[in-house]
């Protein structure tokens, strides 16, 4: 599977995320000859246990994330961050969980936007919105380098591409920047060869950072 980085928009102190920034980012992709391929969507659910008997509390994770990815429509990914666990399941697991009633989805977020092809790269730029809402909570950008599945071998090319991207975007004088978070995938038992589980872990961390950023701006 091609290596993918997931970046998120970090607003400057005192500024907020808006759909205008998303529009500027997509225009920027087109200005560097990105070819629009269509729409994409991913979802993230934050689950909490429904404990009928409090004595079993220690046996259940306090919370975990469930993620569906645009390029893996038949799969669903669970991340238990506290225990550094990532699991792949069939997408039907969501229905099973609803019926079992052992965990409840407390927060559901959608990532949606456009997909572009740019040489050997595929870019996805999209907004983060809660279910049943149009309020933009964040902006994410996936950068996929199609020829290589080794994270180490692709690192230099990815960094060079992001330099070009940041330079192109800086001309628009936007109040913030796209940030890539470096991760130790070994903690989750993942190796150098890129898999969808790597992407799921990236989204989990991006989400944690975005929530922290929102809280810091409000605070």
UniProtKB/TrEMBL annotation:
<keyword id="KW-0805">Transcription regulation</keyword>
<keyword id="KW-0010">Activator</keyword>
<protein>
    <recommendedName>
        <fullName>Mediator of RNA polymerase II transcription subunit 20</fullName>
    </recommendedName>
</protein>
<keyword id="KW-0804">Transcription</keyword>
<comment type="similarity">
    <text>Belongs to the Mediator complex subunit 20 family.</text>
</comment>
<dbReference type="InterPro" id="IPR013921">
    <property type="entry name" value="Mediator_Med20"/>
</dbReference>
<dbReference type="Pfam" id="PF08612">
    <property type="entry name" value="Med20"/>
</dbReference>
<keyword id="KW-0539">Nucleus</keyword>
<comment type="subunit">
    <text>Component of the Mediator complex.</text>
</comment>
<comment type="function">
    <text>Component of the Mediator complex, a coactivator involved in the regulated transcription of nearly all RNA polymerase II-dependent genes. Mediator functions as a bridge to convey information from gene-specific regulatory proteins to the basal RNA polymerase II transcription machinery. Mediator is recruited to promoters by direct interactions with regulatory proteins and serves as a scaffold for the assembly of a functional preinitiation complex with RNA polymerase II and the general transcription factors.</text>
</comment>
